[in-house]
Amino acid sequence: MYLPFARRKYPGPSPQVISPRTELVIDGYTRSACTFAVYALQLSQETPVRLAHHLHAPAQFIEAARRGIPALLLIREPQGAILSQLIREPGVTLGDALVAYARFYTCLLPYRDTFVVGEFEQVTHEFGRVVRRLNARFGTSFVEFVHTDANLHECLEFIKLRGTLSKTVLGFESGDVTRDQLQRELQAVTRATAVDARDAWIPSRERERGKAALLEEWHQPSRARLRDRAQLVYEAFAGLPIYK
After folding, report:
1. Residue of 27, 101, 174, 192 with fewest CB within 10 Å of its CB?
2. Is residue 114 within 8 Å of 71, Cβ to Cβ?
């Protein structure tokens, strides 16, 4: 029931909801390297890949399973994902985030054989291996991202531009804009309104200081049950067999 509503709420270019034209789903709970994975994948391809992404809803994967569409589920250990979320979304409470995290992945436990799992650390440091597992699992031929300094710099520079809400940048994420088109409009996009640090979608010292301030609340005994529940569902996915 959620997907028809999401298609009206998010008509594009990003987030992109799964549809008949989708070639690959890349999604996960918020702050789990979805943006990095999307750009790293698109920047590695000769032609754009039609992606469904950034909806942060289990329905994307359930529908992908029904349609037989390749899918990459991203997951990050609960503390890292949730504290990062609270920095970016100060209106969200820690308790609500813990419940939402556990609910997101618990919904997908019955479908875990239908997608590849990309754990945050491997996605951000060895994304080529993750793409290799995708290709092995689904018989696809996506080009692997190579973690050179130049490639990482390029990826992060484009991620910084998300906050401009440029339709060209966001269209590139979804596979509607080619890399050449993106490069041609890059100067105009760069001259757009300066992006607030909170909207830059990349790590920052300010965010790390904010997370440190939240740690005391994270470790409160009253949060133990919710923490444990989130950790258990994380381990259920992070411990899945790895396709070499």
Report:
1. 192
2. yes
